[in-house]
Amino acid sequence: MADIRLSAAPVLGADIAIGDNRIVERDDLALVSVATPQGGDDAIAAALQSGFGLPVPGPVQSSGQGDMRAVRTTADQMMLIFPHATPDAEPHVRQALSGAGYTTDQTDVWMVLEISGPDTLAALERLCPLDVAGFADGAAARTVMEHMGALILRLGPDRFWLMSASSSAGSFCHAVELSYRNVA
Amino acid sequence: MTQPNRLPSGLTDRSRMLNFTWNGRALQGHPGDTLAAALLANGERFVARSFKYHRPRGVFSAGPEEPSALVQLRNGAAQEPNTRATVAELFDGLVATSQNHRGSLEGDLLALNDWLAPFLSAGFYYKTFMWPKRFWETVYEPFIRASAGLGRLSMEPDPDHYDHGYLHCDLLVIGAGPAGLTAALEAGRAGARVILADEDFLPGGRLNAETHEVGGMAGSGWAAQAVAELAAMDNVRLMTRTTVYGAFDHGIYGALERATDHLAGSGGKPRQVLWRLYTRRALLTAGATERSVAFRNNDRPGVMLAGAVRTYVNRFGVAPGQRVAVLTNNDDGWRTATDLQAAGIHVSALIDTRAGTPDIPGLRIETNAAVRRTRGRRGIGQITLTNGAVIDADCLAVAGGWSPNLHLTCHQRGRPEWRDDLAAFVPGRDLPPGMSVAGAANGALTLHAAMKEAQEKTVTLLQEMGFEPTGAVLPKASDEPASITPFWHVKGKGRAWVDLQNDVTAKDIYQSQREAFRSVELLKRYTTLGMATDQGKTANVLGLAILAEAAGQPIPDTGTTIFRPPYTPVPIGAFAGRARGKDFRPVRLTPSHKWAQEQGATFVETGMWMRAQWFARPGEKGWRDSVDREVQMTRKSVGICDVTTLGKIDIQGRDAAEFLNRVYANGFAKLPVGKVRYGIMLREDGICYDDGTTARLTETHFVMTTTTANAVVVFRNLEFARQCLWPDLDVHLISTTDGWAQFAVAGPNSRALLSKVVDDLDLSNEAFPFMACSECTVFGGTPARLFRISFSGELAYEIAVPARFGDSMIRALMEVGREFDAVPYGTEALGVMRIEKGHFAGNELTGQTTAAMLGIGMMVSSKKDSIGATLSRREEMSRDDDLRLVGFHPVDKSSELNAGAHFLTRGDPADMAHDQGWMTSVAWSPELGHSIGMGFLKRGKERMGETVRAYDPVRGKDTLVTVTSAHHIDPEGARQRG
User: Fold this and answer.
1) What is the pLDDT of residue A112?
2) In degrees rounded to 5, what are phi and psi of residue B521?
3) Distance between CA B198 and CA B441 in Å, rounded?
4) Tell me, what's the ipTM?
5) What proportions of chain B, in percent to the nearest 5, are helix, strand and coil?
6) What CATH number corresponds to the domain at position A89?
7) CB A167 to CB B730 under 8 A?
């Protein structure tokens, strides 16, 4: 066995300031999808509550407990997002839910950008077709931005997570940055 | 330096001067001017040449309807032709030039066309350029192209940026005139989210152009006050310089915001923004457009719409002439005369086509009269009336009546209706869902009526949406006299102009009617009436009226024209937005991309992915050298290829195995845990559309691999099957394509290499045979997945690690591989090896390919049902004499093959009737030392060893090839199983 260890790298390592706005890649977050087995809604709800103290989020919503968030992505699927450094987020969730749902590690599928600052809503007008100004804190939705599939979650008045595919992260981050530059 | 026609009144900022140039001459204007206003202030009446006859033209209107004063703005790469001077906002440093002339504006050589006019009437092209046929492309088209067009493009890339955006509101108010401001105030005060959009830079519409009073103050002052109140509301977004150009489905409107067109430079920001407006309701308060009257030489510089004359006097403080005559068929003409008098401008005469006009002190009034003709080629100097009177005038204000701006009501095929009392079309009943119309746009042509209707309609819309109207009292405003008696056309000698932009005359319309182009749609195509940038805003109704006159029937019986988006021109750049150059579409990169760049890889686009195509090494003279080396080294020892781009779909559920059994044509129900199976997928019509492998990780957990190209299609089809075909199955899908960095490790030393990579997994053939799979760890603990599959025909594996380790993984694999002389290989080497091995790929899966054609008809299981299985058994799809996939090599092994060549039986003529199939893929085989190919050949399986022609008329080649098995190397598969 060669004496080699693999090292993890962020997708982009983005940390961009545009005026008082910032675009930061949250490479400390893990994402695990949880699909609800047919007829397993009650079991999922119970497991989510006992495992993480989280209620099942409603459509176009997320629920939060501590630094863990559950984001509803479709009728029978949600995404758990939480800080987790090692590449074992999926077994961690699977065990905590005692197998109540079908779990898939999605950490490396996505890049999470945390965007914030006074021009954030104006920048999103150039990027996101959804009415995010009408989003309450914690609201989340799947959408498309600049032809790329995306998941958007509102954290606060001018703070959002934007998630998109890691392979096209460069294009996505460029689109976000350009949106800020066009309005800031 | 002086502005001879500038008046002391108006709404422009006289404290500041703006310098601009017109055809190279330095002129001045003020903030708040349009280019047209500034040109008129400087006494420039003759500003353009007309499209077809190159006649002198001046400013005709004061708005977006302008047919004549089309100019070029800016210079160099930023030069923009065909811009309406009437909406171009003046800024310091503006460079403007006239267009559509050879030589100077005044001495245009093509003015000759005007003298040839008798030969150039409607239908001229169709009748003239018929013969000889060979002149069509060689003489006529180049000649017409050279003559056509107005302005000139810079022929340089557009230096500006454009953007797109999305906005949402309860109520979109389109137009910020008196009706729009009233509506926005009502809705804003009620708490609705309002967008108020206006194409002008100064909201207020006709309030800024007329001398009306609202609420006891000047109309323009009330408008400014209303705008200030709206600007202070958080729930109202006032968008000036923004044209709502189209009404689309589901309450979506398109709008173009000219963000920096009024500035000398854009400062790096988007010049224009194309907005998509999502609305619950929309109120169209777009006002009305005035139209002219047709009489001889009514197109000369100095002939203007009367409302535009009032706009220049009242808003811009510009006298359009020193001796102004007014021609009217309605009460607007009187107001024009009195406004001019109030501004101290001499009114030569008021000519009313009606009887019984009231006396206006100090004014010469001619009733029951019209203008027969004008005189003065480069600008009128005199007019002759139908009663014979001759009057001096350097400007003629024509008030022909108003046409409601109902364009957006037609964008979903709504048809306007005729109202005799207005002599105009008004919006019909079939409005786009969610749209209402108020004010002049709906035929409420007077001030109080417009505001009252706007308020009433807004209250209704607010109530529909659940808002409580405030019940505010409308400010006091009066209804001005607005009676009209239609008058369209002064018949007589000479040309009476209807569509100034396209040089269509009343005579052309009569001719169209005579030659049986009587439908208004045919009239448009035959005469070009209503085409081009203004889309007939001033011409359509007049043209229709004259068509009706020619046909001897009422206007509503003659037809209506309806409108399509856009309302006014939208630059292509704005539609493109950011999508240009490298931003045209997203780019997907593999986790080893950076490493591959460092290795000097050449990349190829596969869909949106960038994949390493080959890795050139010093001394290699071309790509073939690199590819040959990569193939030889892989087959000799070991090669590594990033295959991350293959689609990966995580499939879980109690019924996942049953689900796979239904979507794959071959059996999957009994695939053991820890095994991979190759599968093919059929479309519902039985055509084979994708292939790949699926691994079973646990009883309820599978990982499917698709081709790179079909990753999205397969996922979509699976999701459809899951949700719509078999909702009773417990099966769940999620894409993990981007989540895993996956590498093919192929070649006789692949096992030896991976033994140094994988932790604690027995890779012996017994413990981990061909088509085995396992979750494992690598390099001391990093989670991984290992699959023993081969696309090259060699002993091969695919190893996957979470993508965050991908860059580290490829470097580690190459480091460990050094002792085996491991090479990275790209998609070209991958392609060569799969052709040598006889694996089909995208070239073969054409969308017309059956499993039988591919030689894998037996894989379509008859023991179960699966998507496409039934239709794949149709007689014509399983004929024995159909195309079959076979291999080829040239008889003369020194010659090269070409994909795309068609096969012919020796001795047959080269025509489609004797076509025997075609070559799908070819490669130079380093292993065999000659070209090889695969392709579809009729009855191919029975023709092994036969020599056929590979005929390639495109490249002029005709090569004799020998038919072989598609499996050029190791047909028994000993290597991959070893």
Assistant:
1) 98
2) -70, -40
3) 14
4) 0.97
5) 25, 30, 45
6) 3.30.1360.120
7) no
